[in-house]
Design a protein that fits this description.
Number of strands: 12
Order of helices and strands: HEHHHEHHHEHEHEEEHEHEEEHEH
CATH topology: TIM Barrel
Radius of gyration: 18 Å
CATH architecture: Alpha-Beta Barrel
Number of helices: 13
Distance between the termini: 54 Å
Strand order of the largest sheet: 1-12-9-8-5-4-3-2
CATH class: Alpha Beta
Strand content: 15-25%
């Protein structure tokens, strides 16, 4: 069996110290960029790690050139459980896929040695649910996430980004798995809907419950991504800041999706999105970025807005 190769990482990286110095800017939507570059309906995004490495590498480069401090690996659906849920995914080895995905992102940073840049090892949900909704076991989920995190670590990720979690229970198992795999920082983002009585995950978790639980479990930064538009996430940022002193990250969508001729697109302009991100920053965000529908142009406009706030 071939021994895994560890890729050099930023050994001087201190997340808390970095967040004290500035608002950290994450990149935007990976799926949005892949679709724009030709991802077919029957393809899984992680397959590009093997088949279209140069295009994937170029996406990372574009986000860095736009001003991102952090780029996220193309490994959102690369846990063993998630990959095994489709015929195309089952053909990919989880460990090799995550190592390669992290190494591609790490390689992109080599072109910008004059900047302090970071690679976030991206970890998304398994796509399955715990009882009574589904039959996912806690130990199976945790082991799958641990395997993914270990491979991302070996590939060169500076820290782990657990994102788009609609169930706090699954987020906790991902956090535990990542912490078992490595001592590197772990960031956890849940996805919330806005209801008449406040913000809740799909499984009914509140902001307070999420903040208290993730802090107790040892997360280094928490936040929210996806589902909500940038305007709706302003209020969420305000309410979550009221619940915790932990570092916070927010990555909203570029408005609500619109279906035209069978294709989904987002209509919000980069300028309006950046204005909202500025308001989110004023509500106490320590890090910001974009999710579905956002592109390097969105990140470029956010960078300009953050520079205005720093003056």
């Amino acid at each position: 069996m071939k021994k895994a190769t560890r890729v050099r990482v930023n050994m001087n990286f201190d997340l808390k110290k970095l967040l004290d110095e500035k608002i950290l800017l994450f990149d935007g939507g990976m799926g949005t960029m892949l679709i724009g570059a030709g991802l077919r309906e029957n393809e899984i995004p992680e397959s590009w790690i093997y088949s279209r490495r140069e295009e994937l590498f170029d996406i990372h480069i574009k986000y860095i050139e736009a001003g991102a401090d952090v780029i996220q690996t193309n490994t959102f659906g690369a846990s063993g459980i998630k990959l095994s849920s489709s015929r195309a995914g089952a053909m990919l080895d989880p460990e090799e896929t995550n190592r390669r995905g992290a190494a591609i992102a790490r390689g992109a940073l080599e072109r910008f040695k004059d900047r302090d840049l970071l690679v976030a090892g991206d970890i998304g949900p398994t796509g399955r649910f715990f009882p009574p909704v589904g039959n996912l076991r806690e130990d199976d989920a945790r082991n799958s996430f641990m395997q993914q995190a270990r491979a991302l670590d070996q590939g060169g990720a500076d820290f782990f980004l657990i994102e788009t979690m609609s169930d706090l229970r699954e987020a906790v198992e991902a956090l535990r798995g990542a912490k078992e795999a490595s001592e590197k920082p772990v960031v956890v983002e849940l996805t919330f809907d806005k209801k008449p009585k406040g913000y809740f995950t799909l499984m009914g978790n509140t902001l307070r419950e999420a903040a208290e639980t993730l802090e107790r479990e040892g997360a280094d930064m928490i936040g929210a991504n996806c589902t909500l538009s940038s305007n709706s996430m302003i209020g969420l940022a305000r309410e979550l800041r009221a619940q915790t002193d932990m570092p916070l990250l927010f990555q909203p969508n570029a408005g609500q999706p619109v279906l035209t001729d069978g294709k989904t697109h987002y209509t919000q302009s980069p300028e309006d999105f950046a204005e909202d991100i500025g308001k989110i920053a004023r509500e106490g965000a320590d890090a910001v970025g974009g999710c579905c529908g956002t592109t390097p142009e969105f990140i470029r406009m956010i960078r300009e807005k953050l520079e205005e706030l720093e003056k």
